[in-house]
Design a protein that fits this description.
heterodimer, A: alpha/beta, Rossmann fold, 2 domains, four-stranded antiparallel β-sheet, 9 helices, B: Rossmann fold, Elongation Factor Tu (Ef-tu), domain 3, eight-stranded antiparallel β-sheet, six-stranded mixed β-sheet, 19% helix
Chain lengths: 311, 428
């Protein structure tokens, strides 16, 4: 009866199997989980993993996006389209509503709203009594994430205490929480940027168009390319060039998509997933180094934001 | 790693490094990442700046594995960090844990998912107390492959005789202690992580060594389940019942979802459901609702059975004829992870596969001195202690010995008051 296992799973099959296992553990252990879906490439991969984990059933959790109001229209449209195609419930909670409530106060009107998503997320967790949030963070993204658990415990204030994390052994994940506390679960913790692109290629996943090479007006600001005159879904124009700034029309793509004022594109001709995979293999700049302006404030800025409830 | 070329995918290998900063552990990891071209220019720039700021002439590759803010201030690493690199044929996950005695729990944590351990020895110092500790822990947690890396060969003039003496010493030590005496694969490499000798590139300074480089060994090491005869073990995580679907064909769909801990499964196999003991044949094996030919070890699948059997999360599907023991009392090696000592008076929770049960300590047989492997009498366990213990359980576990099956031999202990994971157990 005993069989000899001779075949090795490919690295993508292994990563996928691990991610499915983690999602099912969340579904099996938690009462009210939610999957955070932004329309970005990592969360698009998570949706495919969720299909493989739970189809032909429905997902045992809704999808949720914390919208800063400063997201690219292409991404927001894609988010809505993908949720509809899957027939899954999408909850959107907006940083702008938190601003109206007075729980988010911007220092300046054009400040990046990225870090303020944490407040809106905590408000949504309280509103729906979520006990687990499934997120697409990866350990290769940033130093503070390299030690993050797959199941990361957050106290009633949503805070991450790097000194008070549960040891995580074998694949025995502990997602138990008391009322008011929650778990952040990261099924694709062990994926790298390259794995994500290879998975997108293998699974033929559709992506928002701004991930592919396109023409865009930019200015150089603080050593990075800043997209200008970006039209939001509301019709509002964001990032009007300042006096004296030279507007260049460049061929670019986005490696990450997020809050517009803190996400810079990279110069690229790659207009297919295949070309992006090749470009990712030969790039000399890390994903966040190239594109996330908010991580450059200080060496430990991600860690600081995580302590405040950020992913 | 071109998308066009169809390079054989040799899967994924998880390994850990055992050693202290003094052994050049961080340099070894930094060197592997650097030589496999995993380090990108901006990261390299950052560590160049830091190296210069600290008055160092060359780039300090150990800075690549630098950790969290509080730890940076203390200048030490106090947790497990995970690093990634790929050679194009294989993807690697490195678990980086500190090697000091007070961090036994972190070593055990890192070891629990490792297929291979690199045990670092400083060539100037030879086999030390910490080498014994690391070797014992790698043995205890049953890491299938062990590489003993004799590092800093540059500081002993690449002397073959000294290397041979360290190897002989080490072999004598493990023979005496009975470590790795189960035919486990052990390899020895002379290297210099600082200069890159025998890590990725073959050393010109040590032409006397004709064996594989570290990367050669990593590339060739069989993954944990390869080539082993293993019984089929399928702990059920979740039951898929899409009866509210508009599709009437799905009305009777009942899919048992989980990850195959060991063995394989295909249509027609006769399975036994535990604990109820009922049998049925496999009707289909699926991923995402699509049939696959065979479910393999470590694959997450959905199993459909021909008969309707009541099965829920925490149950286990196994092949009839290779049913594991059902135990309400277990003996185990336990590593205590919590600052609060293990209390014989309290009731804990034990998580084993997908099953959770209440558990009470029945006794501590002995504690192990991790440095000498001597057995010490004990009634209490503090953080980082390792002991042979007994538990009695409210519900039976379907377990194999940890030495035979890591997936069905391992458990964690949970403190219900704060839900913390406080112990890591290996069933004997």
């Amino acid at each position: 009866m005993t069989t000899l296992s001779k075949q090795t799973l490919s690295h993508l099959d292994w990563l996928e199997a691990e991610a499915i296992h983690i999602m099912r553990e969340v579904a099996g252990q938690c009462e009210r989980p939610v999957l955070l879906f932004s329309g970005g490439k990592d969360s698009i991969c998570m949706l495919r993993v969720a299909e493989k984990a739970f189809r032909p059933g429905k997902f045992p959790f809704p999808l949720m996006h914390i919208d800063t109001g400063h997201n690219y229209k292409e991404v927001v449209d894609f988010r809505d389209k993908r949720a509809a195609e899957l027939g899954e419930r999408l909850i959107v909670r907006s940083v702008e509503d938190s601003m109206k409530r007075g729980t988010v106060v911007l220092k300046t009107p054009d400040e990046s709203r990225n870090k303020h998503q944490a407040v809106t997320l905590l408000e949504a967790i309280a509103e729906f009594e979520f006990d687990a949030c499934i997120g697409g963070a990866r350990r290769d993204e940033e130093k503070a994430r390299a030690k993050e658990r797959v199941m990361s415990f957050r106290d009633e204030f949503g805070s991450w205490d790097p000194k008070n994390q549960r040891p995580e052994l074998w694949s025995l994940y502990n997602a138990r929480v008391h009322r008011g506390e929650n778990i952040r679960a990261f099924p694709i913790s062990n994926w790298t940027e390259m794995d994500v692109w290879q998975y997108i290629e293998r699974e033929k996943l559709e992506l928002p168009s701004i991930y592919f090479s396109h023409q865009r007006d930019v200015v150089m600001r603080g050593g990075a390319m800043m997209p200008v005159n970006v039209q939001l879904a509301s019709g509002e124009i964001l990032n009007v060039p300042k006096a004296g700034e030279e507007v260049l029309n460049q061929t670019v793509r986005f490696r990450t998509v997020g809050d517009i004022p803190c996400t810079a594109p990279v110069l690229s001709d790659a207009d297919t997933v295949e070309k992006i995979v090749i470009e990712t293999a030969t790039t000399t700049i890390t994903e966040r180094g190239a594109t996330r302006l908010d991580d450059q404030t200080s060496e430990a800025s991600m860690e600081q934001r995580k302590k405040e409830g950020y992913f | 790693m071109s998308a066009h070329e169809n390079i054989t995918d040799n899967g994924l290998l998880r390994f850990m490094t055992c050693g202290s900063v003094d052994d050049g552990k961080s340099t070894l990891i930094g060197r592997l990442l650097y030589d496999t071209k995993t380090i990108l220019a901006d990261t390299l720039n950052a560590i160049e700046k830091t190296s210069a700021k600290r008055g160092m002439e060359a780039v300090d590759l150990s800075l690549l594995t630098d950790g969290l803010q509080a730890e940076r201030e203390q200048g030490i690493t106090i947790d497990v960090a995970y690093r990634y690199f790929s050679t194009g044929t294989r993807k690697y996950i490195i678990a980086d844990a500190p090697g000091h005695e007070q961090y036994t729990r972190n070593m055990v944590t890192a070891a629990s998912t490792a297929d291979l351990a690199i045990i670092l020895i400083d060539a100037r110092k030879g086999v030390l107390t910490q080498t014994r500790r690391h070797s014992y822990l790698a043995h205890l947690v049953n890491i299938p492959h062990v590489v003993v890396a004799v590092n800093k060969m540059d500081l002993i003039d690449y002397d073959q005789e000294k290397f041979d003496a360290i190897v002989a010493d080490y072999k004598a030590f493990i023979a005496k202690m009975g470590l790795f005496n189960d035919g486990r694969d052990i390899q020895f490499i002379p290297m210099s992580a600082l200069n890159g000798d025998n890590l990725v590139d073959r050393s010109e300074a040590m032409s006397w060594y004709q064996g594989p480089t570290l990367l050669d060994l990593l590339e060739a090491a069989p993954s944990a389940h390869q080539g082993h005869a293993e019984a089929f073990r399928f702990p059920v995580q979740f039951v898929c019942r899409p009866q509210d679907s508009a599709n009437p064909e799905l009305h009777d769909y009942r899919g048992f979802q989980g990850r195959i801990e060991s063995g394989s499964v295909k249509v027609g196999d006769l399975l036994t459901a535990l604990p109820n003991g009922r049998e049925s044949r496999v009707k289909a094996v699926q991923i995402g609702g699509v049939d696959i030919v065979e479910g393999q070890t470590e694959q997450s699948v959905t199993i459909l059975l021909e008969d309707e059997i009541d099965i829920s999360r925490g149950d286990m599907l196994v092949k009839s004829g290779e049913v594991p023991e059902q135990k309400k009392e277990i003996e185990a090696m336990l590593c205590w992870l919590s600052e609060t000592p293990l209390s014989p008076a309290r009731t804990y929770l034990i998580r084993h596969t997908t099953r959770t049960t209440k558990a009470k300590l029945t006794g501590v047989a002995f504690k192990v001195d991790v440095n000498s492997q001597e057995h010490v009498e004990a009634t209490q366990l503090a953080m980082n202690d390792i002991a042979k213990v007994g538990f009695k359980l409210a519900q039976p576990l379907f377990s194999d010995a940890y030495s035979v099956n890591r997936g069905t031999g391992a458990f964690i202990v949970i403190d219900e008051s704060n839900n913390n994971t406080v112990g890591a157990g290996m069933i004997l």
